[in-house]
Amino acid sequence: MSHVLIVGSGARAxxxxxxxxxxPHVSRLSVAPxxxxxxxxxxxxxxxxxxxxxxxxxxxxQTEAIDxxxxxxxxxxxxxxxxxxxxxxxxxxxxxxxxxMIEASKSHAxxxxxxxGVPTPPYEVFxxxxxxxxxxxxxxxxxxxxxxxxxARGKGVFLPRGEADAEGILRALLxxxxxxxxxxxxxxxxxxxxxxxxxxxxxxGEAVVLMPPLCDYKRLLDGDQGPNTGGMGAVAPTAALTPAxxxxxxxRIVRPVxxxxxxxxxxxxxxxxxDVMIVDGQPLALxxxxxxxxxxxxxxxxxLQTDLFxxxxxxxxxxxxxxxxxxxxxxxxxxxxxxxxxxxxxxxxLPIQLGAMPxxxxxxxxxxxxxxxxxxxxxxxxxLAITGLADDVPTAAARAYRGVAQVSFPGMHFRRDxxxxxxxxxxxxx
Length: 430
Ligand code: GLY
What we know:
22 strands; 28% strand; Dna Ligase, domain 1; D-amino Acid Aminotransferase, Chain A, domain 1; binds glycine; 4 domains
């Protein structure tokens, strides 16, 4: 029986803990730092260590003789948490720092993809403001996407609405350090029209288990309006990615990226998550990520039939090809509930009313905590993720919205069009 440590505080960490709590191999779960939902799981406790505090996490794992650590967010991967754990013989699920660079630097990911022939939109890299401004004026601005090179929690991608807007974005990043070091290098990429989907894969560096393809709703408002966020909802499986296209994503993106990393001595063990744009029937890689997405985790993990602990162990031990990983038939849809000012600010301490959930609905906590009087209150801009499960996406989304109706807190915001994706058979609104 194993004691598992999950690193993270969001709904992804809650979904990982919820799934691992079902494993007969897991007797204890610690979540660092966790949230109001992880604290309430049977056999689980929160540990007050921040996900980026590598030294304290290492100390905790050694003192508690943790059997397996699972890393949720990207920041600890980029700061070498996995390398440090492995150096002292601790078992940990996630890529080492050098392999996690595929997410920590977009320009690094682009050159890696060029080396192994992975199709991706054309781009240029800039650290100099004047050079970036010259480039923007030489291009049709509506054809451009500006991206911060480093980690920006989903807030580093900009679609300029004109030259003045593009200049403002570039000045904010390169002149005023709006995203700190993450934005001191930018890539300016060709903006393509197509259907965007996300593909996740468990991998031990060679063998790959693809997860159901996912549609991720990144913009704040209905109809894909407003700023980019960490994700306002997701559905899986998305009909926008046919089995033939999923096969192409595997053959033309996932397999060559992993093979290139392996050939360079950077075996990637963990979850590889690719943002894909389908243009004229061909998949192009928009971004590579080194972990499960959020709210992808809350959408995909409920569809996993196989014991998650066994999958994670097989990746760590490099024998994933020996394990048959099965997925449930049916679909999942997740709606993210945020505070009013998200993604720019959040209001902590707002009381949350959480009623009884209908059948087929799961609640994953993110920015929540219990007060000493055990009242549930907000503690972050992303508050809860409500996942509906059903035979198909529209019914799953309708279920999720029935769950949403059981929740309230002052200023609660959510998108009302989750499930109305291209390829879905219709909108799922009450
Ligand atoms: N939902 C986007 C992400 O997890 O990066």
